[in-house]
Amino acid sequence: xxxxxxxxxxxxxxxxxxxxxxxxxxxxxxxxxxxxxxxxxxxxxxxxxxxxxxxxxxxxxxxxxxxxxxxxxxxxxxxxxxxxxxxxxxxxxxxxxxxxxxxxxxxxxxxxxxxxxxxxxxxxxxxxxxxxxxxxxxxxxxxxxxxxxxxxxxxxxxxxxxxxxxxxxxxxxxxxxxxxxxx
Length: 183
What we know:
The chain is an all-alpha fold. It contains five helices and no strands. Helix 4 packs across helix 5.
């Protein structure tokens, strides 16, 4: 059988030249077969390989180590790509970093203010605050004090309600101040 005549059997001389006509187990020796995949001849057990003097066990170990390194590198690459693809995680990390930076800056500024403020000023401010609180206590009627105590107790029991009431009060005060400014 041939390409031009399917009914005809193969020529008796075919298969003696070229790598594509050779048996797979035969070594490649023809000069025209340079593009063929190199084949190794297996040496008999216990005899050294004359074509490759390096010990095959060492070579096998090197190949295994190379495979392990490649797997590690691929794992690192996959982890890096997964981290880049995780937009939500990256945004969360960025927010956490910014939050930590703001906390550090606030603590730093507070420390600078404490250091820069003389002790006499601190004492004067404390004394003035105590005097104002005392005057407010003296001037405030007992009914208002009792009402304030009840409000404080309710605020301790239900902090969400206290926050809502405080927000409403703040909005009312703000609106009153705006009206006063516009006049």
